[in-house]
Design a protein that fits this description.
This protein is mainly beta. The chain has 2 domains: 129 residues, no CATH class; 134 residues, no CATH class. It is built from no helices and 24 strands. Strands 1-3-6-9-11-13-15-17-19-21-23 form an 11-stranded parallel beta sheet, with no helix packed on it. An 11-stranded parallel beta sheet has the order 2-5-8-10-12-14-16-18-20-22-24, with no helix packed on it. The protein has a two-stranded parallel ribbon with strand order 4-7. It is flat, with a radius of gyration of 20 Å.
């Protein structure tokens, strides 16, 4: 069967583009690479890869290798990868990057996903099913929703959150090691940061509002199932509601650190159940 190998695919787009790319290892050889640059508004992209060792990278607002002042708004970008050792990257940086939707779905082993966003009213979702998955979200802006969901084993999820009026959520379930980390910034207000870990295996959850002041933030850290549970919460000056719950494990450890140097308006609830 004459199958032509496509090792690299590069596409540069401007606004008002609808793009659908489907790569499967039945049509093309494995180890394919997709790189997409787009700028402007109302761009819709859907990418589907099936096979092994595939890589997809999307830049929104990039042109000619530089972000400069290019805008990217009202864009929808979906990456769906099946197989092993897949990597997905989505970038939307600098200003005028509003109302975008980024979705990465990975199903397989050793997958890796990274989303880097700027500006407001953006939705970012990473969903990984399989083993040894890593999901990282780095975001700056207000009124954003960021979600990482991992099901399988040996999870690692991290969020760097900067802005106001946003929802940050990490959910890990299944058997294996669970590691989650949410770090926020100074003067970040009215946010909801949540880590939920369940299943068998060791669990380590960390939520930090390291700088001050920050007000009206809610911190939720919930761990359930078998295995060692370790939870660490650090909040600096400002007003916070902290909810921490651990159930089902033989060894449960919580460390909640409150910095009240000049102001302290915090409500803290810690529950540990067998």
């Amino acid at each position: 069967m004459g199958v032509e190998k496509m090792p690299y695919l590069f596409i540069s787009l401007t606004s008002y583009i609808v793009l659908l790319i489907v790569l499967t290892n039945l049509v093309y050889a494995s180890d394919n690479t997709i790189a997409i640059q787009t700028k402007g508004s109302s761009t819709s992209m859907s990418i589907d890869q099936s096979g092994t060792s595939n890589t997809t990278t999307v830049w929104c607002g990039l042109s000619g290798g530089a972000y400069a002042t290019h805008s990217c708004s009202n864009a929808t970008m979906t990456i769906d990868q099946h197989g092993t050792s897949n990597t997905a990257r989505a970038y939307s940086q600098v200003t005028n990057h509003n109302d975008n939707v980024y979705t990465i779905n990975q199903n397989g082993n050793s997958n890796d996903a990274y989303i880097d966003l700027d500006d407001d009213q953006n939705i970012s979702t990473i969903t990984q099913t399989g083993n040894s998955n890593t999901g990282i979200v780095y975001m700056r802006g207000d009124d954003n929703v960021y979600t990482i969901t991992q099901t399988g084993s040996d999870f690692y999820a991290k969020m760097y959150a900067f802005g106001d009026d946003s929802t940050w959520s990490i959910t890990q379930s299944g058997t294996g090691n669970h590691n989650s980390y949410i770090k926020s910034c100074s003067n970040c207000n009215n946010n909801d940061a949540t880590i939920t870990q369940s299943g068998s295996g060791a669990k380590d959850g960390d939520i930090e509002f390291r700088n001050n002041p920050s007000d009206n933030n809610t911190v939720n850290l919930t761990q359930s199932g078998d295995g060692l549970h370790v939870g660490n919460i650090l909040v600096k000056q400002g007003s916070y509601t902290v909810n921490a719950t651990q159930t089902g494990a033989t060894n449960k450890n919580y460390t909640v650190t409150l910095d009240c140097t000049t102001s302290c308006n915090k409500t803290v609830t810690v529950n540990q159940f067998d």
